[in-house]
User: Fold this.
Amino acid sequence: MIAFLKLIFISSISVDGTKQSRFELSRLAKKGESASQSILEREVLLRDLLSVQRALVAVLIVIIVASAIAACGWPIGLLLSVVVALEFGAIARLPVIRRNSQRVYEKYEAKLLEFMKRHPRLFSILRSVTHEGPRNFTIGSRDELRHLIDQADGHILTSREKERLLAGLVLESMTVFEYMTKRDQMTTIESSELLGPLVLDDLHKSGQRLFPVTQKSQIVGVLDIGDTTDLSTSKRSLTAEKAMSSTLFYIQQDQSVLSALETFARTGSQLLFVIDTDESIVGMIALETCLPLAIGDLQTDDFTADDDRTAVAARLV
Assistant:
């Protein structure tokens, strides 16, 4: 009976490791966090601790089987032993038993670990060959990495940081064709169009900043209405051809959004014209379209005085 109670007690103890990785514990320990150093030492001893628990369970089962056979004979003793082997785990998992056993174990765990630390050879003899203990793991796929990012606690990664990291993982699989503005949906302006107040007002209302300039249905330049602000109050009007930039940059429709961002960085342009393998322009893609795909949605506030040095300095304070 005493052996059975001991078996229940030892089996009900949960020797759990930390949820932190070995890398994170080592990093914190190097920064001088004593708690992390203690946890790291415990993780190192955890393999032997679990082996001791398994060995004690095995020894107690053998004692119970031998005692049952000696007391009741082979048939009944063997039957009782089978019942014990099948049911002791279920009994050990009862909440009231686990709670009390865990309380006793936690009270003496520090002393037990200290004893194990002083006598490593003694406990290494009992070490289980099937349990490797805590070890560093490698990420096996992008899906696993996405899962880890998504499951990270809020104090480690904010929702915006998660969004940006997850977006970065799929940039190479996102094609320009998927996110471009198609040729028949592009808002263009004729090269001969006078940029008077009414025309500029209409362009501003479109919500677009960069406009392809066409001449006989051919794209010949890019008009940036940010460069034409003074024209809206000027008495003279320039044509789109006079105000446009005639330098055009291209990207192939099957290239990735990441390639588009690299092209933007390389050229300093904010608009790329998308071409197919026949060199025909099939659409366009803007930097402002690609940025949210790379770093998530950009949250903006009501601050608009970015050209005011005093206002910006006060804001940073």
Observations:
- The CA atoms of residues 210 and 224 lie 5 Å apart.
- The beta strands are 181-182, 189-190, 210-215, 218-224, 250-252, 271-275, 281-286.
- The chain is about 55% helix and 10% strand.
- The chain has three domains: 2-124, 142-171, 174-311.
